[in-house]
Amino acid sequence: MTRLIAFIVLFTTLGLAPGLSPAAAAPSPLVMERLLGHPDAGNRTYMGERFQELDDLRVFYANRAYAPVWTRETLLELRYAFMEAQRAGLSVTDYHFTALGTEYSNDNEMALELLATDAWLSLAGDLYGSDDADMLAYLHHALEQDRLYEALAELAAFRSGR
């Protein structure tokens, strides 16, 4: 019986047991650093999208030692924040909306991570009309407070005058 339990734990950990696979692994900080630092990073597409805030992405992730930010739950919250932005008069298609609606998997985790941060920074800047340094600080503060959605929703309300 002990061997059976160990076998199930091993297969579940490796993601080989159907219906029992663990959550997707976080993107590798080393790979994220290499990708963002590559000279062609601004010319490549990721899930059909190009980065809008590449310099800000580089600064943001370098300051965080390339630690990932997004989970499945916060990606969903980001899509809800897009709806608030739409009410404020912005077009969600300008912020990787379709790509960020893709099912999260180990194959696309890094693209979703970077596109989500790119979208957040771009959307926050457009909602508030502020410079990049302000949006980097605002994102950092929103992360510290675990308020990624609320921070964007507040900016959308500010923009629409609610």
Q: What would your notes on this structure say?
A:
It is a single chain. By secondary structure, the protein is mainly alpha-helical. It has one domain. Helices cover 60% and strands 0% of the residues. The protein contains eight helices and no strands. It has helices at 2-14, 29-37, 54-63, 72-87, 97-100, 109-128, 132-144, 148-160. The longest helix has 20 residues, at 109-128. The radius of gyration is 18 Å and the shape is globular. Mean pLDDT is 80; it is low at 1-24.
Task: Sum up the structure in keywords.
mainly alpha, disordered N terminus
Summarize this, please?
This protein is an all-alpha fold. Helix content is 60%, strand content 0%.
- What integer value in Å does the Rg equal? 18 Å
Terminal CA distance reads 61 Å
Q: Count every helix, treating DSSP H or I runs of 4 or more residues as helices.
A: 8
Strand composition percent: under 5%
User: Helix/strand-derived class?
Assistant: mainly alpha
What percentage of residues falls in helices of 4 or more residues? 55-70%
Number of strands: 0
Protein name: L,D-transpeptidase scaffold domain-containing protein
InterPro entries: LD_TPept_scaffold_dom
Keywords: Signal
Pfam families: Scaffold (PF20142)
